[in-house]
Amino acid sequence: MDAIAINPFIESIYEIFENMLGCQAQLGKPSRADLSPHSPDYIGVIGLTGTAQGIVALRLPEKTAIAVISRMAGFDFTKVDNSVIDGIGELVNMTAGSAKGKFHGHSISVSLPTVAQGGLCKLSNVKDSVWMEIPFESDLGAFSLIVNLKNSVEARQEVANESARG
User: Fold this and answer.
1) Which of 33, 75, 91, 161 could form a disulfide with 131 if both were Cys (CB 3.0 to 4.6 A apart)?
2) Is this prediction's pTM over 0.90?
3) Is the Cβ–Cβ distance between 52 and 157 less than 8 Å?
């Protein structure tokens, strides 16, 4: 996975944090994701299909999740409840939706978000691809963007093959 594939998601994070949350998100050093199933973090996951296929996730520690969703909702949450869970789903939905528009020359659909607490180790349906984790720091806490995209040339060929089959 190259920087060109990740950049639309990073740009979307910057825009959401600056425009909606009124703070800056500082990019850390991207690396292969640690998919430990024992993570206590909250993870919002959304799928991409079409000429760019894969999974996008946001991993937020509890404190960061509460701070981000409190700022987003304009209400001070003190614990993770259904509203915070819904907010995490909306945050990953906004990230993927915004990034989708930045992929020029692609036809991409975004699935409904899912939010879970724990690791991503069960989400391994994207063959021959790498999970990349992009850490961020913000005034609201640390969090990570996790992206797994299938090679776009392969994905475009699969979409073309499916279209030809009717």
Assistant:
1) 33
2) no
3) no
